[in-house]
Amino acid sequence: MGRHVISLAGNPNVGKSTVFNQLTGLKQHTGNWPGKTVGLAEGIADFKGKSYCLVDLPGTYSLSSNSEEEEVAQAFIESDRSEATVCVCDATSLERSLNLVLQIMQASDKVVVCVNLIDEARRKGIHIDIEKLQYLLGVPVVATAARQNEGLDDLMAALSKIDSGTLKMNPYMKEALVSLQENPEENKLALLDRASAIANDVVEITDEYYNRRDRNLDKILTQKSTGIPIMILLLIMVFWLTIQGANAPSDALATFFAIIGDYLNQFARIIQMPEWLRGALIDGIYNVLSTVISVMLPPMAIFFPLFTLLEDFGYLPRVAFNLDKYFARAGACGKQALTMCMGFGCNAAGIVGTRIINSPREKLIAIVTNNFVPCNGRFPILISIITMFFVGSSVSLGGSFLSAILLAATVILGVLTTFWISQLLSKTILKGVPSSFTLELPPYRKPQVGSVIVRSIFDRTLFVLWRAILVAAPAGLVIWMLANITIGDYSLLTRVTDVIDPFARLMGLDGTILMAFILGLLANEIVIPIMVMGYLSKSTLFEFESLDQFKNLLLNNGWTWLTAVNMILFTIYHWPCSTTLLTIYKETKSSKWTWISFLVPTLMGVSVCMLTTFLAHSFNLV
């Protein structure tokens, strides 16, 4: 007999992924449910000589098919592939979880209920009568504390009853639930009532102030007077830690790749590799790949864990709560705040995150505007320009903190633009009334630092880096060809730069800068190296050893404070990278909306830069 396939379902923030990770360890991979784009994590759990394939379904509050996550969860649970379902509940909020349990019991007669976070419940003075809950539900119920590995063997023992055929629901409960399905509207209300009645019957709260700490924190983090300032301060701190921490590792990686590059060139000469092939492979593909890795990896390895720690702590839903009213005024969905935060790490990840938005109209608004928050690939551009022209090239703590403040101000400008463009879209091509949604504020929890680091490195940092590498490799070849194919005395890159220079001047830039952005469509990380290559008329990517050298090159090529300002503005307002555009097409399955997502920020960037340049010259500021 092959492995039994077990669905793992539950609300968000109930520790479902922790249960999954503890049971499967490193025996995991991610696949897609056929015909869907939502990734499903699959892992192998071994118990008493037998193996079980656990499928971690997207966190969902119901099986009402209001979102892609709910559709996937329901389809998988009801499919022939799933032999049983483990429904993970939150012991500190059992009533909310039981609504989903009852819906799953209507869809499948082989269900095991896992009451997780039982340790937190004990600390808060919440007692759950597990035996009585099992009697009332008519299915096996197991109490667990997955972080401490408590109760997981009992959970697997309950699942092992599949082999003996004894994992079945109480027939009377099954009959009662099936009868409710005849009227969908009455069914929904009846399930809520039943969930509430069962919870009241089995839960005893001995400390009525058990959630006082959470409420006190919420008074600070979600109040009008303190919520937004604290959010901005945390943003500055995250940026400061990222800037300060990434400098040395980025330099070390760049030096390492330079040494490897020298060895590769020596090897090419030893084997007498043709010069055109050596240039294409080493000066082109290798140099671009090494630049992307050295620029992206260190800040992502810092930013993503910090972001995940805030997520694990329970802060990100508070961000959505604080920004919900602003998105509502813009005719958008408050959940867009979460997808916007994902965009800080990678805009492509932010696009994928829009799956949590139920309304197709609001999902499109979130997709079109996600590019207005700068991603990890654009941070090096912003940091270097801000540092050189508005802070000074000092790498002191004070200098990096001022850079973080100005970077945060730049990001806030992007957020404000997101509100404005969202409102514009909701009143024009995406008209509609903003939908309401129930936003759960989960309890604050002590983050699992080790788990967070591993999860953020493997699930986010390396995933995003790999996608960037896949784009950067062909980009390196294209750039090398443009720089080395000549027409007369000038390279094709120089010819194109000269053609677009007049238009770029209207934007307060120049042809070299605009050409760097155009080629940066493939990967934002290579914009600055391409720009330097253009100014130096080199046929391969080049980087300076210090910001002072870089600034002198820019000043010698006509840069002023206005050029720097327009460079910052166009970095925020320009087309998404090719990886993000590809992700937009996969999510929307529409060329039209992919083009709109390209044109909206581009037209915004060109317009803002032209206006800034016009005003600066009108008032004789340059």
UniProtKB/TrEMBL annotation:
Parts of the chain that traverse the membrane: 227-246, 252-272, 284-307, 337-358, 379-395, 401-421, 464-483, 513-537, 558-575, 595-616
Gene3D superfamilies: P-loop containing nucleotide triphosphate hydrolases (3.40.50.300)
Keyword Transmembrane helix: yes
GO molecular function: ferrous iron transmembrane transporter activity; GTP binding
UniProtKB keywords: Membrane, Transmembrane, Transmembrane helix
Signal peptide (from-to): none
GO cellular component entries: plasma membrane
Alphabetical list of SUPFAM superfamilies matching this protein: P-loop containing nucleoside triphosphate hydrolases (SSF52540)
Top-level taxon in the UniProt lineage: Bacteria
FeoB-type G domain segment(s): 3-165
Record-given protein name: Ferrous iron transport protein B
Lineage, uppermost ranks: Bacteria, Bacillati, Bacillota, Bacilli, Lactobacillales
